[in-house]
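Task: complex structure prediction.
Instruction: return structure tokens for all chains below.
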Amino acid sequence: MIITCAEIDGFRNLSGMKIQPDPKYNIISGKNAQGKTNLLEALWIMSGCKSFRSSKEKDYISLEKNKMLVEMKILDNIREQKIKIEMTKNSENKKNIYLNEVKQKGTKPLFDVFKCIVFIPDDVDIIKGSPEKRRNFIDMAYSQINPATVFHLNKYNKIMNHRNALLKQIMNGHEKTDALELWDRPASYEGAFVSYLRNDYIRQINEICSKLYRTLSGGTEELKLEYKSNVYKPEDFENPLSEKSAEIYFRKLQESSGYDIKTGTTHTGIARDEILIKINGLSAREYASQGQIKSTALVMKLAQAEIFMQKSDDAPVIFLDDVMGELDENRQKFIFDIVRNMQVFITTCNESALLPEIKGKIFRIQNGELIEN
Ligand SMILES: Nc1ncnc2c1ncn2[C@@H]1O[C@H](COP(=O)(O)OP(=O)(O)O)[C@@H](O)[C@H]1O
Ligand SMILES: [Mg+2]
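Output:
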């Protein structure tokens, strides 16, 4: 899919911006703090996802304006669609979302319309950061292929909120231990479902990551991603998802309930899952060098794009924020080879650091506005 045109006004420091991107490569160039990342962020939020910067939605609106507007057209294999997000500064900072001029209740319908993948320098946190970062990466990645799965994750989280509240009531003697079954049953179904999804996705991404990393390292290093479920043993996944899988999950929850009641929180289940990332058998989190970590993050994102292409017969739009110019020629060529047939947006403050092959439209940004070449 490609973005055919976009209009942005009042989003952070961007004002009156109209662009018609190249179907292939787009270079967004400018000095620091001019609005390059803001432009990618404005386009990114049209996917219905939260910002890739850990920022609050209310900060989207320009400090100098009362309203922000981002509008764009997306062309996929089938048709062109129009998405618009408006936000006005007021007590609620509510977003108004329109798909093909029809007002939508939330961002959910956008997941199906616009798919993109972003690379940012902070992606190294997927490897170096807490297990939650890795779980989020995996959950986001399979949700992109099948947006309906988000429903199961959300449902699981809601059930856990109830369970944790109940644990505290039991701890205080206001409820009986038996009452936990009310939440542990539905939690088992949703938890089993998510575990199987994660296992399936990690298996697929592991295969592609290994292949890509081998190429990138010139055949000298082996990257492996392994799902360490908190509930299931690897051989459990050899059986298909069934009543039995839910039963295993249920028993695990019940087994830990004593300790859970003492502490008032749940200690088992998918919120304790880990994804092990190993290079030549050693945990990347503990032993990998900066360069290996960068390469691993890169390979994981590229693998996400590749799986997406295999499943949907369409390519996501790729955003590369401040990553290309930082990489050596070898790594740039490697990325370029994989995203060759996708629409790509590359931000840089140094156009000359980019591979000469990367020719396309150049957008120069100064103080939140486009400047003519
Ligand atoms: N809500 C906002 N209103 C106005 N300006 C903002 C807002 N949020 C961020 N900015 C400004 O945007 C600029 C940073 O833009 P950014 O896209 O991150 O720069 P870069 O070109 O380095 O990627 C800063 O000057 C910052 O003050
Ligand atoms: Mg930036």
